[in-house]
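ok new one. same drill as before - structure tokens go in, u give me an amino acid for every spot. 225 of them this time. try not to just spam alanines like last time pls lmao
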């Protein structure tokens, strides 16, 4: 499938798929969306609420590595041990990822070797990016995830329901629920009523929160039982 590099509203880049009329990150700002949805309302929330000494994260849709890299920067800044698992069925090449220039856009050019190390790491094998940040990339369809009680936080960053409705069903969210530890949290940019209902159906407690730029709302789901 053809991929094009586009610049989003905050100046950061993302990949656009013309055949699907879908992009990997928000056209209103790739970095702004990632920070708002996954860091502010995901990682920061889990740290404030549960005060863990380390965090295990599952990302649904590793894509360009933007969410992983921003999380890595947070881990380094806060001396926080993070074990990060990124699931992706259709990996982005190191060449495509490099064109994104995320280290420069995030004022972290000195960490560019770490960003490249993430993309060069071997799939299915744990990689120690730094002493605080371990990464495992898994080439896998989301329906095949069978992890149980392993994660404190899930970044649910799949393509939208308009393009891939099968990724936003109760069947998928049941797998997410089972993958989380008690008090674990899932965050996503999505806010559709059908997505919220699918989350509620499998046992999540769901909050509607203000969305990132260009989007009115987003969802955060918590496993409380």
């Amino acid at each position: 499938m053809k991929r094009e590099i586009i610049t989003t509203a905050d100046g950061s880049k993302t990949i656009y798929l013309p055949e699907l009329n879908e992009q990997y990150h928000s056209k209103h700002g790739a970095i702004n969306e990632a920070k708002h949805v996954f860091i502010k309302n995901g990682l920061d929330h889990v740290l404030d609420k549960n005060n863990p000494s380390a965090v295990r994260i599952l990302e649904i849709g590793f894509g360009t590595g933007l969410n992983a890299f921003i999380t890595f920067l947070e881990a380094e800044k806060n001396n926080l041990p993070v074990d990060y698992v990124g699931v992706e069925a259709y990996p982005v090449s190191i060449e495509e990822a490099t064109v994104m220039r995320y280290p420069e856009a995030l004022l972290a050019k000195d960490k560019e070797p770490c960003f490249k190390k993430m993309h060069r790491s071997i799939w299915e094998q744990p990689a120690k990016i730094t002493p605080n940040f371990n990464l495992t990339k898994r080439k896998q369809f989301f329906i095949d995830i069978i992890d149980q009680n392993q994660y404190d936080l899930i970044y649910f960053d799949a393509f939208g329901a308009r393009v891939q409705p099968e990724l936003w069903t109760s069947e998928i969210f049941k797998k997410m629920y089972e993958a989380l530890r008690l008090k674990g949290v899932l965050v996503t940019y999505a806010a559709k009523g059908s997505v919220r209902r699918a989350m509620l159906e499998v046992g999540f407690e769901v909050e509607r929160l203000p969305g990132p730029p260009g989007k009115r709302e987003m969802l955060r789901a918590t496993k409380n039982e």
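The domain at 29-222 is CATH 3.40.50.150 (Rossmann fold). and btw Residues 30-50 form the longest helix (21 residues).
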